[in-house]
Amino acid sequence: MSDGILLISDSDETVTVLREVSRRLNHKLSVKKSISHGIKASRDSQIVIVDCHLPDGSCVDCLESLMEVNNDLVAVVIVDNGDNALTVEAFRRGAFICLHMPLNREVVEEVLKRAISFQTLLHRNRMLQDCSIEDFLKGKLNGYVQKIKEVGDIDLYDTVVNEVERVLLKIAFEASGNNQVKASQILGLSRNTVRNKLKKYRML
Fold this sequence. Notes:
Helix content is about 60%, strand content about 15%. It is α/β, with parallel strands linked by helices.
């Protein structure tokens, strides 16, 4: 999975903000100033940020074309503050989340963290689809069991179940931006159940 982020924008100010934030997150930022060049570059990208002001077309049309080229990407759209119609249309065309102008560096960083976490989750899901859950668990647990034997008398069942559950909770919360409702939806559990499990693992 690529650790790069593609920005489609011809705004120097936007490029400056995104470069700074991407650098803080240890991700490389590639910049294309037009839809046509951005679509070509998106084939090798996992996260794409699209500016609403582009010289050769609409950002929502760009978004639709991006999804046709690479439907696995996570798309972030930059819209003018208060442009609710464009925000709704961007989500309808497949945007993961929207940023609003003028850009706030702290907000941009939080949004990119969520996009990166969500893309990581998608990547892990794709890996799981390439093998059965049984094969995946066997591959991981065989080595783990050997280590347990070396340590001594440990309750293997409870240890494994608790570790798997804790990691699932962590992944879901990273992908949802630490939102309990969204994490519950990802996990397919009620909010109360998730909250109780978070308390159990001292994650609150």
